[in-house]
Amino acid sequence: MDDIYKIEKVAAASWPSYIQKNMGQWRLRANFGVTKRANSVWTSADMPVGDFQQEAEQFYKSLGLPVCFHISNASPKRLDDVLAESGYEKVDECFQMTASCLDIMSHTDDKTRFTYKWEQEASSIWIDHFIRLEGFSPERHQGYKNIFERMPPCKTFFAMYEQESLTAVGTASVIDGYGGLSNIVVAKEHRGKGAGTQVIRALTEWAIRNGAKHMYLQVLKENLAAVSLYEKIGFTPISEHHYRIKR
Question: Phi/psi at 60 (nearest 5 deg)?
């Protein structure tokens, strides 16, 4: 449980919302509706004193956002049942997966056909590339910019090319020896050719240079192709989480 709690804390710190407010040891997070992770109550700690549902509902309703709780294996045991009984819908079941950096490197090979571009801060062009590859609305640009600007300083925004064609993007950050992977997207025309594995290898190499011993990532349980890829290169699920949402 200690490892699960530590990774939940590191993962939360690596994805900071524009608005954050403490509720006991929990944290109310809001980011103009861009990503559930940044617009949910972080609950991986002891239950706060008082009526937490009322406080959370007032907070999100004042911002015009649905009320959303992030529930992990480190959350209080009865919390999920309490929210279900209050009419909160369960959505987006995810794995939190971890791997040692050495395992990732031993399970992957360097593909020299790719070229890389690194940015310490996400440029508008990089954010536009990410949004386009994901198929998201351009209106999400500012929301992602808010998160990326507030990430801890040890971070990188990565783009990979093959013969000058944008192949994939990804993000990594390092906190307390843990490298977090996020925003990994491969262009549709380049999928199934080893690009995803190469992104993870390149970002892991960067994380090692910046003090990481372990890597972690979050993936939807229903994304079987991604889960299978991650397992092949050394990742294993350490915990699960999902969201409880009331619109």
Answer: -75, -40
Q: Give dist(CA 68, CA 49) in Å, integer.
A: 19
Q: How confident is the model at residue 95 (pLDDT cuts 50, 70, 90)?
A: very high
Out of 80, 95, 110, a domain closes at 95
Region of 35 please: left (phi>0), alpha (psi -120 to 50) or beta.
left
Q: Is the pTM of this model over 0.90?
A: yes
* Domain count along the chain: 2
End-to-end CA distance of the chain: 31
Residue 112 has pLDDT above 90, yes or no: no
Q: Does a structural domain hold residue 244?
A: no
Cβ burial 19-56 (10 Å sphere, 16+ → b, else e) = beeebeebbbbbbbebbbbbbbbbbbbebbeeebbebb
Judge whether 147 and 41 are in contact, CB under 8 Å: no
Tokens of 213: 């011993």
Instruction: Report the 10 Å Cβ neighbour count for 165.
Output: 10
pLDDT at 109 over 80: yes
Contacts of range 19-25, beta carbons closer than 8 Å, 24 or more positions apart: 19/63, 21/59, 23/48, 23/52, 23/55, 23/56, 24/48, 24/49, 24/52
Mean local confidence (pLDDT), 39-67: 97
Please indicate, yes or no, whether residues 86 and 103 belong to a single structural domain of this protein.
Answer: no
Q: In terms of DSSP H, where are the helices of the chain?
A: 2-13, 52-62, 79-85, 101-106, 124-134, 141-150, 195-209, 224-232
Residues 46, 91, single domain; the answer is yes
Say what the pLDDT of residue 2 is: 75
51 and 114 share a domain?
no
Domain assignment of residue 158, yes or no: yes
